[in-house]
User: Fold this.
Amino acid sequence: MCLFNVFLFIFVCLFIFSANAELKFCPEFENKKI
Assistant:
């Protein structure tokens, strides 16, 4: 397995995780939902 593919996979996972965390814990998003 190419090392670049592993790095890219980890980067994508971190990007998705940070995006989900930002959506969950953003106060403005919660206020709009309520």
Notes: DSSP finds two helices and no strands in the chain.
